[in-house]
Amino acid sequence: MRITPLAADSLGARSMATLVETPDVRILIDPSVRLAPYRYELPPHETEETRQRDLWRGIREAAKRADVLTVNHYNGPSVA
C-alpha cells in the first residue's frame, strides 16, 4: 500500500487531500485544496495562491487515475 499526501498544511495548504493506492484500488480522499481567507488579518499572499494552483493541478491528475473519490468534509470552493 502507498499513501501520498497531495495537499496538507505542511505542503502549504489548509487541506488533507490524500491518495491511497493498493494493488486493487486507488482511493482519493478529500480531493480539494483550500487557503485560509484571512490569517493574522491578512489575505492570502500571492505565493500561497500560486501554491494552491499547483497543488490543485496535482489533485486533478490524481483524480483522473483514482478508482474512488471520497469527500469527508467541505473545504470550500477550489481553484478551477
Written description of the protein model:
The chain has one helix spanning 46-65, and strands spanning 2-8, 16-21, 26-29, 68-70. The protein is an alpha+beta fold. It has a four-stranded mixed beta sheet, with helices on one face. It is elongated. 21% of the residues are buried. The model has no long low-confidence stretch (mean pLDDT 85).
Short précis:
With 80 residues, the chain is an alpha+beta fold. It has one domain.
Helical content class: 25-40%
Largest sheet: 4 strands, mixed
Report the total helices: 1
Strand content: 25-35%
**CA-CA gap between termini:** 30 Å
Order of helices and strands: EEEHE
Gyration radius, in Å:
13 Å
Low-confidence stretches: none
What structural class do you assign from the helix and strand content? alpha+beta
| Spatial sequence of strands, sheet with the most strands | 1-2-3-4
Shape: elongated
What is the topological layout?
Layout: E1 2-8, E2 16-21, E3 26-29, H1 46-65, E4 68-70
Parallel strand pairs: 3-4
Antiparallel strand pairs: 1-2, 2-3
Jot down its keywords.
single chain, 80 residues, alpha+beta, 25% helix
